[in-house]
Design goal:
heterodimer; A: 266 residues; alpha+beta; Enolase-like, domain 1; 3 domains; 5-stranded antiparallel beta sheet; 4-stranded antiparallel beta sheet; B: 780 residues; Aldehyde Oxidoreductase, domain 4; Aldehyde Oxidoreductase, domain 3
Amino acid sequence: MYQTTYHRASSVDEAASLFAKGNEAKFLAGGQTLLPVMKQRLASPSDVIDLGKIKELQGVELSGDVLTIKAGTTYFDIMQSGDVKKAIPAIAHLTSVLGDPAVRYRGTIGGSIANNDPAADFPAALLALGATVKTHKRSIAAENFFQGLFTTALEDGEIITAVSFPVPEKAGYEKMRHPASRFALTGVFVAKTKSGEIRVAATGASQSGVMRVPAIEAALKANWSPSAIDGVSISASNLLADIHGTAEYRANLIKVMAQRAVKAAG
Amino acid sequence: MGVEGIGARVVRKEDKRFITGKGRYVDDIKLQGMTHAHFIRSPHAHAKVKGIDSSAALKMPGVVAVLTGQQIVDDKVGNLICGWAITSKDGSPMKMGAWPAMAPETVRFVGQAVAVVIAESKNLARDAAEAVVVDYEELPAVADVHAAIKAGAVQLHPEAPGNQVYDWVIGDEGGTDAAFAKAANVVKLDVTNNRLAPNAMEPRAAIADYDSAEEHFTLYTTSQNPHVARLVLSAFYNIAPEHKLRVIAPDVGGGFGSKIFIYPEEMVALWASKKVGRPVKWTGDRTEAFLTDAHGRDHVTHAEMAFDANNKITGLKVKTYANFGAYMSLFSSSVPTYLYATLLSGQYNIPAIHAEVIGVYTNTTPVDAYRGAGRPEASYLIERLMETAARQLKVDPAALRRANFITEFPHQTPVIMAYDVGDFNASLDAAMKAIDYAGFADRKAKAKADGKLRGIGVSCYIEACGIAPSKAVGSLGAGVGLWESAEVRVNPVGTIEILTGSHSHGQGHETTFCQLVAERLGIPISQVSIVHGDTDKVQFGMGTYGSRSAAVGLTAILKAMEKMESKAKKIAAHALEASEADIVIENGEFKVTGTDKAIALPMVALAAYTAHNLPDGMEPGLKESAFYDPTNFTFPAGTYICELEVDPGTGKTSFVNFVAADDFGRLINPMIVEGQVHGGLVQGIGQALLEHAIYDASGQPVTASFMDYAMPRADDVPSFNLSHTTTLCPGNPLGIKGCGEAGAIGASAAVINAITDAIGKNNLEMPATPDRVWRTIHAA
């Protein structure tokens, strides 16, 4: 690791002003990506601003039809939250298959979506559920937030404070785990909103990161059942391919995971 | 057996320090004035080193020195050796290219060191390493055996034309051809045995400390065999004579073979510590482990098996290409020859065998012994062939195996090995019963109704362990003997120290070796300590690998114990005024049999050391040593059966049941044996389903971290159902065969046989990743 200056911010405002003072500062959430990358000397921030102790970034709130998860809430706390289990059990399930216990104790929803790894789980949930990303400056629809591999709508120094999810009528998430990293080799989140809209998002599959799957959405709109997806054809072009999964395999997984997610959603 | 004697499930003595964080590993050791080394490693698979400019690095804070490959060559540090000479079929010796500890001119794999930075801290050394400019001229590279042996392929070493190290044969070619000419059926199979990275939990590390006044070196290192390390460093690498070099291998966190070998980093640390006049420490990180720890396996094989009209095997032909990587590691040459082809008879009566093994250089990390070393490759090949044969001949796979089992012992195979004892039917029976083999068809039908493809796979493995009779291995080209030594020291107060040349790096010797003493003397194991891993303390040792520590190392302890007991009985008889022949040892006492006369061990020990009243002419003291050389290999064998389900939608495998029926001869501590089997099975399953060290065509490693290289986790493997069927090994007095490698040797074939049974297609390479299985299911 290169030398860096560590700061522990006690509020979002303090974190933002520390960032502004830094030369090449980085925010630290759960540290599940930034710290390994720093240890490998692939990142050399001048300042590391730890958001982990900021109280206003912690917790889950359920208010009417909106579930709000503060950005610094760990996967473990999300998984354990009664409000999450009640309002959107698919999110509790997603966190239960995310990484391993050590990752779940440290990693946060805000860190995950700010990094926007193309195989991360949470981006699929946000996109499928039509969530809104709240920052200390504005609100951004998930649709506009994710902009390709490791790229988001966040401006330099912008801090995610929370993610709010409209509570759907039903939702499900199924994932084929990457055998080595336990990221999503492919994961599919399906949701039927209370207004009847069908939204399906796949992660781990596309070369441009998390994506909607219109063909499956159309099939499910006609008939919300796993078998409705049987006849859908998913193209392998523009899908990721690596030693653990060819593009054709990922195309297959999009279908199979979608079917299983619909089954899980009920 | 006593509560702590042979056969008792004694809790491991060493675990207190390991689970409370009190283990003392090389990286825990800090010496006064210690400096830190960071290696500059080639990013290219094959390149000329045109120049190294370290001028900027030398000006950086905390930098002590930057040393290069040319300097280590100029200082006449020897090239790395390969300690087992193999002769090709044309009578020529194997063809080896030079392997300097750091490359002065040419790098031949990604990760090969060209220079080292010595600095006040690891981080400062890394900072400075980034300022060293190495000018490389890239060369074409070959990463697999197919590419390496092609006409016109780039040549790695001028000494090895065609990138061929040797072309070795074993067995009777004419007899085998005759058997095939008469065969009723011939079964053919092409198999790739995937390359694996060993991944011991503790990365390799070394601290070298040179004392200029005494011209003496001390090396702390992660070694499975510190005496062998000292011998090689002295005799071949020109570091220091043996009496001026102490090698200490303290607690070592796993080896699996990868820590047998003497690596460039230890050599450089020793050489550099003299050069800079301060201790030098190097601790590898995980990426360095992936790049530089010797890999395992990597065979490409075509095999054919001939059967007569009664489904009896009449012949076996095997042709294997073994990928050795860029250099010949310490014991690499023996792995695909004498540790592989000599086991190709498996558990079967095969009248004629002929095998050809072609060793090949590629621009990849060197390959050497990894848990099982040659025997997993042999077992996998034979057991895949037997399964393929059963499918082709349309007979039950267990029945086909049974019909061909060797049932009379001793049995001379056509490939050197003479099996001493075994009962292959017993282990097959036990495994079939444990898994309810007869009920499988019903279970498969039920699974099908649930949309799952269920399969069952049998693997009847045999291995040669207890490595090894020195005369035999010497005649086959080994550069060392493979005996073991031990010393028993009874202290004046009656406590006992056992000094052993075996090395424990997870095996539990500190418990099992004490159990032998408890068994013989009837004293608690708390009265016994095991000393190992230090060339200044232990007289000599060949170390721990090849499942040899119990069969060879513990037998050496037994021999020393017998000598000590003989002397102690004389002392006791003298003190008790009885005949030596009437003395028996029970519960820590020397008793006159049939009487109540007795003297406790501490009193015998005290008498030995006070020497006030010893028999006439007896030397004082109570300490004996022994060297034990086995008369044959040992032959652990058994049957593994795996039942699993494949999800046709994803190709993912889920275990239903995994049974192991092993014959290890006598068990010292069944709990530790079970742990060894569990670990071995997980490694075998890891090879079958998950693990693969992959290079792209240009020789770049694709799997140099745990983000890409899939190590098995607890939830990837089933809960195992273990049992033992026992035939005692006649070759050693304790009847031990060894248990350290069996799981890794036998498991892979059981898994692949089960998956291919489930999906109804026979050809499936390892690792059987979900993607690969899914594509195989859906292939036309």
